[in-house]
Amino acid sequence: MSEKKAYSFELFPPRSQEAEESLRDARHELASKQPSFFSCTYGAGGSTRDKTLSTVLEIHREGHPVAPHLSFNGEDQAQVDQLLATYIDAGINRLVALRGDIPSGMGNMGSMVYANELVAHIREKTGDHFHIEVAAYPEIHPQSTSYETDIHYLKQKFEAGANSAITQYFFNPDAYFHYLDNCLAAGIEQPIVPGIMPITNISNLIRFSDACGADIPRWIRKQMDAYAGDHESSLKFGIEVVTRLCEKLLEGGAPGLHFYTMNRAEPTLTIWDNLNLDSRR
Ligand code: FAD
Q1: What is the spatial distance between Cα 180 and Cα 83, in angstroms, rounded to a whole number?
Q2: Predicted confidence band at 105 (pLDDT cuts at 50, 70, 90)?
Q3: d(C-alpha 249, C-alpha 243), whole Å
Q4: What's the average model confidence in pLDDT over 128-146?
Q5: Number of C-beta neighbours around residue 65 at 10 A
Q6: Is 29 one of the annotated active-site residues of the chain?
Q7: What is the DSSP string of 100-136?
Q8: What is the residue with the minimal CA distance to atom 46 of ligand 1?
Q9: Which pLDDT score is estimated for 211?
């Protein structure tokens, strides 16, 4: 019998009352798919501390599994420990542990604590309470000195106590399978779930991808250029590309899919339906 795959939905904390309401609607639609968990991002320097916390607690109160993202980035230890205690009290038992980034313009605002050190800290403070997810980079983290060192540091996160990983998004399935082979060769056997970014707005995606080191293949850029001004065709094309990517990943044995929903239900649910995931679970 094939192993049950994990499907999860990532959200970011809303920045206005209006965004909060629209996120609530999106979340309710996404929840109908009974994801393995929702996750909610955490802004550098604790910039979304309160909003991440309130969003996470709301999802938890509604009865859905939720994993807050957490980083040490610019936070002091007492603040991180306070958050951990709040999550434990609430009954939350999954986290996504990250180093985070210091946004440009924020200068020397705090210490950068590598994710493996955060994982070790969480294990030291809270034992086995949390299932800990960490980030992985099939196309390699932009600050990494080499492919091998990046895999070495992923391994350190697992050795510190992480349970599974979620990848940065990518559009080339070979990058993921090549990475899995290399992780396995390095002795990493924990699940590495591909992160999936629905393509909806190519100019935003290009800007974002340049910063996080994700490659958008030339053929996708060119085809999207050809659809410039024709929103419907470009959206249809983007959804098709990502559907095919997911199909290849699942066929190749990916342990699940983690969707970067960008707080919108429709693109992710269209891909979900295209893949017929309701009947494949
Ligand atoms: P690390 O694993 O610490 O790695 C960072 C870099 O340092 C890599 O180049 C690595 O090779 C190197 N490195 C690691 N350990 C060491 C070491 N001990 N010594 C020397 N070098 C080392 N960002 C946010 O701000 N908020 C979020 O909520 C958020 N969620 C994310 C979710 C996912 C699934 C992913 C993939 C990314 C997310 N990010 C988020 C982005 C992430 O914070 C950045 O990519 C960040 O630059 C690296 O975080 P990390 O946890 O992968 O860092």
Answers
A1: 33
A2: low
A3: 10
A4: 97
A5: 17
A6: no
A7: --PPTT--S-S----HHHHHHHHHHHHTTSSEEEEEE
A8: 100
A9: 86
Name the CA radius of gyration of the chain, rounded: 18
pTM to 2 decimal places: 0.96
Any ligand 1 atom below 6 A from CB of 47 = no
Mean pLDDT lowest among 87-91, 167-171, 206-210: 206-210
Q: What is the pLDDT of residues 200-223, one digit of tens each?
A: 988 889 999 988 989 999 999 999
H helical segments located in 93-217: 115-126, 147-159, 173-185, 202-212
Residue 40 Cβ inside 6 Å of ligand 1? The answer reads no
Q: Are strands 37-40 and 94-98 parallel, antiparallel or unpaired?
A: unpaired
CA–centroid distance for 91 within its chain = 22
| 51 CB near ligand 1 (under 6 Å) | no
Cα–ligand 1 centroid distance for 122 (angstroms): 16
104 φ, ψ (degrees, to nearest 5): -60, 145
Q: Which residues pair with 39 in a beta bridge?
A: 10, 67
CA of 236 to the centre of ligand 1 (A): 32
The residue to mutate among 153, 176, 179, 212, having the most atoms of ligand 1 within 8 angstroms of its beta carbon, is: 153
The helix/strand/coil state of 39 is strand
**Is 36 in contact with 65 (CB distance < 8 Å)?**
yes
Distance CA(241)–CA(78), nearest Å, equals 44
Q: Is it the case that residue 166 has pLDDT exceeding 60?
A: yes
